[in-house]
Automatic annotation (TrEMBL):
GO molecular function: aspartic-type endopeptidase activity
Protein name, per record: Peptidase A2 domain-containing protein
Composition bias type Polar residues, residue spans: 221-230
GO biological process, one term: proteolysis
Low complexity bias locations: 241-251
Pfam families: Asp_protease_2
Region feature (Disordered): 175-280
Organism per entry: Puccinia striiformis f. sp. tritici PST-78
Residue span, Peptidase A2 domain: 6-43
Keywords noted in UniProt: Aspartyl protease, Hydrolase, Protease
PROSITE patterns in UniProt: ASP_PROT_RETROV, ASP_PROTEASE
Amino acid sequence: MGSTKVKALVDTGAEMNIMPESLAIQLQLPLREISMNIMGIGGHSTPIVGLAEGINFSIDTEDGKAANFFIARGKVYTVLGRPFLADHKVRLELSKSRGEILSYELWDGERLCIPICSPKVPGWEMGPPRRIEERCFSIQAENYELASRNVASFSRSSTSIINNIKASADSNLKTLDDDLDTMDNDSRTVDSDLRTADNDSRTMDSDLGTVANDSGVADSNLGTMDNDLNTSDDDSEVAESNLGTTDNDLNTSDDDSGVADGELGMTDNDLRTTKPNGRK
């Protein structure tokens, strides 16, 4: 930081970047006063007295970074936590042979690898502390007992609900049976009505037969009327023959008139013959 070399602890589980108050005073960093306490994984409490924002530093000589640091009072280390890892795309790599390695990309595209913990170093623990494990176990046991009680009460309530559903279903089935009986009675009534309708239709058929017989009598009467009409036609033919005789008589009269005209012509000739004699 500036011209001062500072050793920092990379903590992948820390929720903030931390700097001791003595180092902030040495570097003369601008601080914004705040008052809060943070709790460590061991259960101890550390007071926070200020916040230094946008502090520039470089891990490599040509690679500049910036981060916010919470200023802690007491005997603490400078910690680069998860905010630093997220802001600068730092990658955490795990290997059985090499252990835990922290790497981030430099300005020239290469990645700088920092060994965090080696499996050969004593004290490297993969599991959580025993105290936390015991607490989780007791909480799980209490939840399991409560869950078993809830399951038992739920099974009782569910059994009563199922019995109520079965009872209501049985009552609904009885109601359906009663409705089916009523429908059967109604169908029987409909059958009797259909039989009455069949009898009425048969009566109508007999009436139609009577009407058909009456129509046969009417047809015979129509035949008699046709005969009368034929007789009338014969009389009309006789009348026409009489009319033909009258026409013949008229033709005879015309012939007689022609003879009369011939006689008149002869009289005219006689008159013409007489006139010349008179002149003489």
